[in-house]
Every structure is written in structure tokens, then in C-alpha cells.
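Researcher: For the record, we're logging two predictions in this thread. I'll number them. Prediction 1 follows.
Model: Prediction 1, sequence and structure:
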Amino acid sequence: MDTETEVIVAGAGPVGLMVAAELRLAGVDTVVLERAPEPSPHPKALGLHARTLEQLAMRGLIDPFLADGIRVPSWHFGFLPERLDLTRLDTAYPFLLAFPQNRTEALLQERALELGARIVRGEEVTGLTRTADGVRVETAVRAWQAGWVVGADGAGSTVRKAAGIGFPGTDGDTWAYLGDVRADAPPPAGYGVQNDKGALIVAPLPGGLLRFTGFDAERQDPAGRELTLDELRETTARISGQEFGLRDPVWLSRFTNATRVAADYRRGRVLLAGDAAHMHFPAGGVGLNLGLQDAMNLGWKLAAVVRGHAGEDLLDSYQTERRPWAEDVAEHTLAQTALITATTPAGQALRRLLSDLIRTQPELSLALARRLTALDVHYPAPGKHPLVGTRVAGVALLDGRPAVLGSTVVRPDGYVLEAGAVRGQSTS
């Protein structure tokens, strides 16, 4: 006999755990199935941007992040030498919060468990079939019957493939390197370089580790070879002109700029979120943020449908609202890849020109900063008041229900649902 639940979330990464927590806020019976027996020790992403921090604050989750994170007041666009000033942003969090993904995952797992989600590790989703009243999910261990399934199981998503959802986009044509190591002669904080040989940026990690990552113009045909410490040493020395004394590697990896967005975010009672719905080059550190914002948008809507407070058509707005912003991220991360890999004389001239424009045109810097941090995300509603679909900052929504500000109703994820006079609040 199948094990039953209202919603199955495939994937216990930060996005899947955030979806589970959102569902449990409304009392929806939720099971998270994760193929890995233990959480990954590697901090894949390293930063949380302003809009993500605002939404964590709406759920009363912000304090441990701010307590342990490092506030970075400026950030790069395409490794350009002139950085974007984040302190001008209209938010309570005008910075990038350096915070490792595995720590984010641990905090969100704690939250989901506190709210009553069940997390089952070592049980990988292998297939699914639609039933009369839901979805039957198969694993190597058993079968589950659920009313709904959320695929948050990464770029190679089994849920997406089993649901027959396409994943159009472009294959990778650029290889990047990454090494989490110790260094006897570490560079100064905020170190980065880009030149005719490639690119290198260095970021601190917990426990005295450093992440060396970038683009090597000489090694663009790795042919499946694993990155070695010797290669990382040679690459970083050649690009930077310095020896850092790299040793004791914890994680060595390569990745590409393959860029794809799912054709559909919903197929019946199957929905996608995070990397299952979109993949791109990790330029600007926006990927995890995009996925967590998917989770916020989807979670309250799916909970409302499961609880009978809204019709299934509410879930159609999930794709309408979130997919365009995934396409936007795909576009500007491809553009950043072009800047990072611009090693020719013409490419170097373009980088100097754009960097100078960022330095001399404050509004350009601000526009790019808002784009990276997702503060410009909005969900326009044709024929409605112009405030509808805009972000409202500074709204605490601890119970997951809409807030009323004057005669304006704000959705659980902090966007205006019905607009009137917004009293004592800022909008953007």
C-alpha cells in the first residue's frame, strides 16, 4: 500500500526546504524526499541578496543569518573592476550577505522540521505517474501517493523529466574552475583579477578556507578531466601573477555556462522550483536567491489551493510571475559570462568602457544593482492599479496571511495584491 501525504517535495536543498516550510505554515501535510543520505558539506552558493533577506525577514528567520553573515557593501557585475554600490538600495538590507549555502540549508531544515515537515533522506524519486486525485511517486524504497508534487531536485530533475516538461536553452560553451582550499599566502579581502589570460576571484569560507574560482582561457577543453590541485595552482598563478601557496583542497570542481529555463513551471499537479526550473552560470551569485524566491511565490499559493481557500487557477500565476524573471536572470548571467571571458583586446576595451560607465553613471550602477538583488522584480497586472504586483518593503507576515496597510492588501510574499493608499510604507 502506498504511503500517503498531501504534498511531496523532491529535494532537500534550500529551495525544497523553503517550500516545505511555507506549506507547513498553513498546516499542509508535507514530505520532503532527498536522495542524499546526508546534507552536502560544500557551500555551493555563498551569498544572499537583499530581496531574499527581505523575504526571510517576513518569516521571522532573518536574525541567525545576520548574526553569522558578513555584510558586503558592493558587488561585481561580470568581474568588472568597478563594483556596484549596494548601499544605495531602498531596503533594510543594502548589502550582499556572505553566507554559505550549507548553513542556509541547515537553518531552513531546522525551520521546516520545527513546523512539522517530514524529511526522508536516502530515498530518491525515480518516477511518477498521474492518478485520478493526485500523483503517485516512485522511489527505490516504496511508492508514495500525494495530491501534489514539487520538483526541487536540481538541474537534472527527475520530476521534470518524468512530467514531460521540456528544458530548452543553450549548452555550455565556457568552462570555469572552482577550488575550496587553504592558502599559505592568501590575497587581500575582495581580491579579483581579469586579464588576457582569464579571470580569478577569491572569497572567504568558514574555517579558514578560501574559494578560488574563475575562467582559464587556456583550458577550455577539459574533456571530462577532473580539476587537480596542481592545475588550480598553475592556473591561479598564471592569471594573477602570484603564488598563493594553495594546499589541503576540500572541493575541486568545474562547471559550465549551460543556460536553460523549463518550458512549464506547472504540469497538472506537478510543479518545479529552483534549479529544476532554471540553470545558468553562477555570475553575480543570483541562482540560490532566484530559487528561494520561487519557493516563496509557490509555497503560499499551493497551500491555499490544498486548503481549499483558492482554486487551482491560482497556481497558473506561479509560472506567469516567476518564469519571466528566470529568463531575465538567464539573460544577464550570459551577458556577465561574456564579460568574464572577454580576454581579447576588443573584449578588454569593452570591459574598461563598461566599468568606466558604472563609475561615472550612478544610475547605471543602481539599475544593475537592483537587477542583481531582485529588488526590481514585479508582477504587473494589466488594467489594475499601477501598485499591484509591486514590492512592499518592511512588512512582517509571520502567520503567512496577507497584511492590510491602509486600503492596500499585501500578499504573503510581500507584493501588492490590491492597491489603495499605502500608509507609512515604502514601495518600489
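Researcher: Logged. Prediction 2.
Model: Prediction 2, sequence and structure:
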Amino acid sequence: MRKRFLGIIALALLTTACSDDDNQMDMGNIQAPSTYEFTRDGASTVSFSGQTTRIQMGEALGKALMDPATSSEALKAMYAHEAGTPNFDDETLNASSKNIRSKVAASRDYFFTNSTLSAAIKQDFETWIDGQANEVFSSWNQEAAAGVPGFIQEAGGGSVRYVNAKGLEYDQIVIKGLIGALMTDQMLNNYLSVSVLDEGANRANNDNGVTEEGKSYTTMEHKWDEAYGYLYGTEGNPASPILGADSFLSKYLGRMEGDPDFAGIAQEIFDAFALGRQAIVEKNYELRDAQADIIREKVSMIIGVRAVYYLEYGKQAFAANDKAAAFHDLSEGVGFIYSLQFTRNPETNQPYFTHEEVTNYLETLLAGNGFWDVEASTLENMAAEIAARFPFTVAEAL
């Protein structure tokens, strides 16, 4: 896969090499390293600690959302953490100036001129967090029914699910929603954006090897690495990721890679990150931007595939008369559907689905008694509509 992928790029770019300065090169000769390791004067130039921290905060929030002893105030304090506040069990996280909320729906390309929508999306997560504490935690020992929050157990003595009055698991929409609103939006629409990579003197500084004060990396190198960190930031060895280290993009890229219909996608995404980073080192910005487009398409597909997957599996669970399993699948599906608005089609530079389209889908699924009453045909049609925007079929997503 690696040789084939790089060979295609080399062939396409072979005749477009620069020829007017000391940076002259044959773009087809640029090769990505086999591991994500880059150095300057013997020191690593790769840094994405902020992304690792936010992923870890997201993991901690996800666990707390299933602890009925946790208050709404404590959960929202984790979401909007302030440095020095003991919101986490990890003292390193408590000391951090980072938080989740500030980076939700905060990309340069999608939200810089739309602060109203950004604020509304940030508030969505607070509303769901409040719902978990005030509706679900308070009904933890009550059996759920249509219009009644509480617990419901999967068929055959399986997992117990805790849902609101419409059958929705708030913790699932929060975690899967963050995959889009935090990780995907920051990666695809912020750090890989030309407006961020080439901001101010970034290109001139990268051309001349001018690093950030006290650092080994240029600003452009760092921005690209921050995008990388939202996918691989919790890996034991991020230079050679194996996937599945956290509950966010890493987990679901691993799931997709395990599907024979999408085998190779993990290598394609890694190769694009590594080749794009090498292109920055080589000062070849056309090649860099081509890799950003590959990442946008492939990462967006993760969200599209999982949205379709969970809609279809929810439908199948209903057919098997297992409401609890269906509610769980649809709760995950709702989170991925919400995340569709943060994807990016490289052909249009717009999300594959707009905020309005996503809102309509959620309103349809949660109308009336929500999942208790949803029709199989509604799930089927929605899955087909989502798949039709992407280069995969419903059958391939399963």
C-alpha cells in the first residue's frame, strides 16, 4: 500500500517541480519517513502535548458521565476546566491550562466568522451534560419506558443502558459528538487549513528555518503536528501508531481498518500525515496541501461510515426485539450524525452535511418518544442518504 500510494503521488507531481531558487527539487522524489519522526540539529521537532491533554480530558469526562455520584457542576467543570482546579484524578490534567470547551467548534475555517453557531454548539454539550446529571443520574435505579428515563437491559442479560425519556444515552452523544466538534474540526478545518499553516510570516519562516522562540520547530511544522496529535496523541509510540489508544478517532479508525471493505485506510491517513510533514520540511506547499485533502476525505469517511453503521445496527436490534441494544446503537449513531457537520469535502471545502441537515436528522430521530417510536424505514432512509454523500455504500459500512 505504501509504495503504491506514494508512487501515485510521485507520478502526478513529477512534472511540477520548482525551478527558480535554491529549493529546486523534483517533487516526485520527496519520500515520507516510515515513522512520524522529524528532527532539527538532533532534536525532535514534533510536539502535540496540548492535543494529548484534551483527549485525556475527554476520556476522563466520558468516565465521569457514567458515575451517578457526579454532579452537573462537576461534569461541566471538567468540560470547561480552568488551570489549577482539581477537576480530574490526574494532577497533570488539573495543572493544565487546556480544556475541551474552548476548542469545540472553534476552527478557523468553519467558525471564525460564525461565533453564534460556535457558541450554540458549545452549549449543546453543556445541555447534554446537564441532562445526564439531572435526568439520567436522578433516575439511575428506575426502569426506563417511553417518556420515562432510567435503565434498560439488553436481551439475554446483556449490558444495562441508562437513557433519557427518549431512549438516548447522553454520554454517547457527548463522546461521539466530541469526535467531530473537537478532534475532527480542529484537525481538518483548523490545523490543516492554509489560513492557519500560512498565517502571517509562517511560510517565510519555514522557508528560512526560523523556529518558534525556545523551540526546535517552525510554527508551520507545529501546526501540522497538532493536527496529527488529535488522531495519534495518546499512542504509546505516536511515531508508529497502532490505533485504539483512546475512545475517539483512534478507536474508530481502528474499527474501520478492521473492515475488509476499508482495509488500508489507516496506512493512507498515516502516509498522508507523514508525507505532508516531509513536504513542509522540503518547503513544498503544493504537496503539503494535497496530503491535507487526503486526510480530510479519509477522516470524514470515518464519521460517515460509523453514522451509517449505527443506524443500521440499531434497526437490526429493533428487529431482534432488543430495545436496549437498539438504543445504544442509535445513541452512538446520533453522536456520529452530529459530527457530520465538522467533516470536510476536499472538492467543495464544505462539510459533507450542514448544521441544518444534521439538526433535521436529530429532530427526526428524537421526535415524540424518540427511539421508542422510531420506524425502521426512517433509519434505513437516513443511512442511505448519508452513505450517498460519501464514496461508500450502506452495505460496505456494515
